[in-house]
Each structure stands twice: as structure tokens, then as C-alpha cells.
Fold each of these.
Amino acid sequence: MRFQGFLRMEPAAANEGILAWLREVESLGAMLTNGAAARLGPHAASVDNLRSSVHAALARLLDFKWASPEVKAAARGYMERNPALRQVGRYRFSTDWMSKCEAEWREVLSPLMGQPGARVLEIGSFEGRSAIWLLENVLTHPTSRITCVDLFEGNAARLFDENIATSGAGERVEKLVGLSHVALRRLPPEPVYDFIYVDGSHETYDVLEDAVLCLRLLKPGGVMTFDDYGMAAAQLADFQDISRPDLGIDAFLSAAARHLQVVRKAFQVTVRKNPA
Ligand SMILES: C[S@@+](CC[C@H](N)C(=O)[O-])C[C@H]1O[C@@H](n2cnc3c(N)ncnc32)[C@H](O)[C@@H]1O
């Protein structure tokens, strides 16, 4: 995002640049479509994600001592006119990391759709968007269940609870609160899950550890998908502090090569565990 560049400027130039940037963002915002957002890279993917990035940047800006009163007023005005949350059907979400993978998930997960007793494990649930997609499209049988592992902190945790309650499927959702490497070790060490979605911490070592712990919990023949394999490659070139889930996923794929088949390697990576 161009916003990062302002942080390296002299305060006067930065304040002026931010005011112009805000005017531009607001005028373009009304015209932006999901298709246009996706052309900015798979991680941007939707208007909701771009909007959420602008909100996060502006929230940071309000804390900067060098930001002028005029800039802070403009930022507050923008945030009031453009709320961070959006009603999506019956739910409220601030972001959309789901639409970009829906088509692939429908294809890979079709054998699991509507199956009695189907079990899914999700690492990283945030506001519940991917969990709800799974509940509405795959875990449609009343005996199917999802286990959601997350830190469940702040506003996202409140939205997760609200959205799951709205879905009416709350009784089929098990929440495990805490760091995934701790929570996953508390689960019975049995291969019971048909599908595992790894979308929690994006730090290389954490992703590798989640992958190793999850493979033990995946049924033979079960499917595991990692988000954001392509994230680092899609980041803007001047973005310094990038997480590298791809390095963790590649390390896992090498170490576990004898135990799985790679189904797809694109922005997401999907593997199938070999039969017993
Ligand atoms: C990208 S979001 C998940 C988005 C969600 N899967 C969706 O598509 O709607 C990542 C989530 O992982 C959680 N998270 C990050 N590090 C974690 C960790 N070490 N253990 C458990 N959860 C973690 C965050 O709290 C956040 O909610």
C-alpha cells in the first residue's frame, strides 16, 4: 500500500500526501469492484480486504504524534463514512479471504459435502468467514462438526461468536482458544479429521509446526489446505516485514513427502494424506 511510503517522509510532506491519498481512496472506493481488487494481487482479492487495510492504516495514523489535526480529522471522517464492517447476507465481516478459494474448495471438498460425521479442523478462524462457508457448503449434515482453533481476541472474537450464533450451527462448532501449537497438542492424537485448513500464524516456524501437528490428526485419504503460500510473492516489493508461510509449507512438503500427495500448489497449497 502507498501508505507505507508516507512513513518514510518528512512530517509536512507526509501530512500533505496523506490528505491527497485519502481523497483518492475515497473517490476510487465507490467504483472499486472485487474483480478490480483481485487484479491487485491474490492477497488483496476483495474490496473488503482493501477497505480493512485502509482502516488498519488510519487507526495507526491516529496514534502518530506528527500527524496534523487536519489529517486526523480527515482520517476520522473517512472511517465514519466507510464503516469497517459489512453485512454479508446474514453475517458481519470486515474481510474476505474466502471468495478467492471458493471454486477450488468446492471441487476438492465435493466428496465430503453432506457426509454424515464429517469432521473439519480449522487453524485460524478470525471472524468465522471460512468456518461458516464450510458449515454452509460442506458440513451440512447434522452430525458433521468443525473444531476452530484461534487466539479468539478482541473484536474478531466477538464477531466470530455473533456470526456462528447467526448461522444456527453453534452446537456443531467446537472452539479451542489459544496458541495453535498448544491447542493442537491437547487434542487426542488420533487421525479423525477429513479436512484441515491451516490459516493461523503466518510465521514460517509456526506454519511448519501447525502442519506437522495437523498431519497426525488428518485421516488417511484426508485433505489439508494451507492458505497464503503465494503471499510473500504477491506482497509489494517495498514491504519490509513480510511473513513467509511458503518457507514453512515447503519445509513440510519435503519432510512429509512420503506421507502425502500434493493436489494443488498455487496461492493455496492442498495435499492429500496417503491411505494407511
Ligand atoms: C487470516 S486469519 C484467519 C481467517 C479465516 N480463516 C477466514 O478465512 O475467515 C488468521 C487468524 O489466525 C489467528 N492466529 C494467529 N496466530 C495464531 C496462533 N499462533 N495460534 C492460533 N491462532 C492464531 C488470528 O487470531 C487470526 O484470527
Amino acid sequence: MPTGTNETGRRDWASDAVSGLIVLIAVALAAAAAIGGFFLGRDTKHTQAVAASSSTQQASTVDPQVASGAHLFVQFACAQCHGDLGKGDVSPDVPALTKVASVLTAAQMRHIINHGLGESANPTKPYMPVWGAVISNTQVNDLVAYIRAGLPAVPTATPPQVPQGQGQAVEGATLYVSYGCINCHGPNGLGGVPNPQAPDRSIPPLSGQAFRAQFNTDAKIIDVIRSGSVIGKAPIVSMPHWGGIVPPDRLQALVAYLKTLK
Ligand code: HEC
Ligand code: HEC
């Protein structure tokens, strides 16, 4: 294959011209569609929406607050318990959120997110964690806006893909992010996230000598991840119960990751 010849150069120029033309035609078509839409009014709304959703411009058509809520819904692992787009089907103990906006007011939803809900004292079932000390008011408002908008799919608001076949510790490092452990226990398990009402005033680290001494077997670590540990009522943040949410092989992977930390 000759590279850098005039011939190649000319061909590139020619294909640039062709793609330029295609772009021009596309722009002209889009403009025509927009003008048509303007004159035809409501009837074309649906067509325009379909066109918009199939183009790469979709992100710019999402309300910024709803987009922010969609990313927070993934970041704080709401999706891991309530299902993708809040559709449920993860555990019989966790409700879908698709209809909740027609039942609860925005204020009620904010209260549930800040203060948690359900049987935090029952170690065999998941409950709605207390997020008040961890999630800001702006973030809570964005989450509520997202739920009220009907939990639409937003581009790139998806959990990181879990690497396969690269060992449990690698898998666990991604799960530590996708289950939102990192929001409460900090990057690298360093801890330090404030929990003002708790006796030690912060969420504990998952690294360091004290943690290693107390959680000196895999079974002890898995047990606390499954069953949580309730240090008190809201506004104290407690460890969520992940039993029934995080499958056993993923619990093993999380432990393998935690054991790599300092
Ligand atoms: C560890 C699992 C878990 C996580 C993570 C979680 N939830 Fe929940 N959530 C629950 C459970 C369980 C309930 C039901 C509690 C009950 O009714 O006893 C619930 C209830 C709710 C409700 C009330 C639903 C209703 O029908 O009354 C809302 C709203 C809600 N969660 C929003 C969120 C948001 C937003 C996030 C992310 C910031 C989140 N949840 C993260 C487990 C979870
Ligand atoms: C909503 C915040 C929150 C999230 C999310 C969270 N934790 Fe925790 N976690 C806590 C709190 C608070 C404690 C301390 C409980 C106590 O002292 O009784 C704790 C305790 C622990 C402990 C025992 C450490 C100790 O010193 O008591 C382990 C292990 C642990 N969490 C692992 C995890 C893993 C793994 C995840 C993700 C699957 C996770 N946590 C997600 C808040 C959280």
C-alpha cells in the first residue's frame, strides 16, 4: 500500500469533498424539516422527537437538571436497587420508581431520600438507605426532577462495565464504584466522609490496620456487606443491607478488591 503519495492525497481530498457535501445535504434536510415542522405545528412533534432521538444531538435536548438526576441515579447506585431506569425487578423488597411520582409529592420524595425508609433493623432485607449526610440538597432536587420526568434514558448515564476474566480484584474495584460504596467509604476505601451524628463522626474506612484487625476474615467482611450494621436512626447514615442485591460471586469480588487496599 503506497502511503503519502499524491494519489492518496487526492483521494482523501476527494472523499473530504464528498463527506462535506453529505454534511451540507444533511444540514439542508434538517433545516427543511425544522421549517416544515414550524409550519405544520403539533402534528410533526412526534416525528421530530423520533429524529432527535436517533441523532447524536440527543444529549443537548435533555433538560440539564433531569440529565444530572439520571447520572446521580447511577452514581449513588439507586439503579442497582431500584433497577435500570427505576423499573424494579432487582429484589421483591425494593419497589420500582416508575409510578412513585404520581403517588408522592416532591417534598415526600426528598424526605425519603434524605431520611431513608423501611426496616433498617432487619438484617435480612434491604431498606432505603439514609442519604442526608452524603447527598447535597441540589443533588436530591436533581434526583427528584429525574424521577418526576419519568426516569428517561440519558446517554452515558450507565454504570461502568464490569471487566470479565481479569481476576476478582479487578472486578471488585469496578463494583466498588457501581454499587456506590465509593460515595460513602471514599476512593481507595480511605473513609472520611462526614456522618456528623455518628459516634465517630465519619463513615469508616475500609482500609488501614483497625479495619484489618476487626474484619480479619472474608466471612466477616461478607457478613457486614450483606447484613449492614445499623448505628442509629436518620440523620445518621448506616451501612445499607446488600443481601439479595449484590450476588454472592460479586460479594467475593468486592472482598478481593478490599484486600488489595492499603
Ligand atoms: C440498598 C438498596 C437501595 C438503594 C441503594 C436505594 N434504595 Fe430507594 N428504596 C429501597 C427500598 C428497600 C425501599 C422501600 C422501603 C420501604 O417501603 O420499606 C426504597 C424506597 C424508595 C423510595 C420510595 C418508593 C415508594 O414507592 O414509596 C424512593 C423515592 C427511593 N427509594 C429513591 C431512591 C433513590 C433516589 C436512590 C438513590 C439515591 C435510592 N432510592 C437508593 C432500597 C434502596
Ligand atoms: C450510604 C452510605 C454507605 C454505602 C453506600 C456503603 N456503606 Fe459500608 N458502611 C456505611 C456505614 C455508615 C458503616 C459503619 C456502620 C457501623 O459502624 O455500624 C459502614 C460499614 C461498612 C463495613 C464495615 C466497616 C466497619 O468498620 O464497620 C464494610 C466492610 C462496608 N461498609 C462495606 C461496604 C461496601 C462493600 C459497600 C458497597 C457495596 C458499602 N459499604 C456501601 C455506609 C455505607
